[in-house]
Amino acid sequence: MKTLLNIIWFVLSGFWLWLSYVAVGLLCCLLIITIPWGIGCLRMANYAAWPFGRRVVERPGSGGGALIGNIIWLLVAGIGLGLAHIATALALAVTIIGLPL
Q1: Cα separation of 56 and 39, whole Å?
Q2: What span, in angstroms and rounded, lies between the C-alpha atoms of 16 and 22?
Q3: What is the mean pLDDT of residues 42-50?
Q4: What average pLDDT score do residues 83-99 get?
Q5: pLDDT score at 1
Q6: Are the CB atoms for 92 and 101 separated by under 8 Å?
Q7: Nearest CA-CA partner of 3 in 54, 55, 45
Q8: Mean pLDDT of the chain
């Protein structure tokens, strides 16, 4: 069932989200300061393309540095990728097949 859901997801929206994550990741890798976020963005591209059956693991030891990193991530790439997710959600909500996804 996971494979079927992943195929439907990839065809309807996963490819476009993967493409946007890869583009933002490569853009972040061009700038020296944002290379760690670019690498993280390229890792998240795989989750955007093939999400079902994966698990996110929380890192409890992250502190104030992670907060600063998250703020930088939000300003550099998070807003644009968030808008891409909202546009994808609205497009999926229009179709009967995409509504459960």
Answers
A1: 17
A2: 10
A3: 87
A4: 81
A5: 75
A6: yes
A7: 54
A8: 83
Report residue 57 as tokens.
């693991």
Give the whole-angstrom CA distance, residue 15 versus residue 29. Answer: 21
DSSP conformation letters of 44-87? HHHHHHS-TT------TT--HHHHHHHHHHIIIIIHHHHHHHHH
- Residues 84 and 17 sit within 8 Å (Cβ to Cβ): yes
Going by C-alpha positions, the residue among 69, 66, 64 that lies closest to residue 38 is 69
Closest CA to 22 of 84, 68, 65, 72: 84
**Residues 6 or more apart from 22 whose CB is under 8 A from it?**
41, 42, 45
Residue 78 structure tokens? 């998070």
In this predicted model, what pLDDT tens digit does every residue of 9-44 receive, in sequence order? 788 888 888 999 899 999 989 988 888 888 888 988
d(CA 78, CA 71): 9
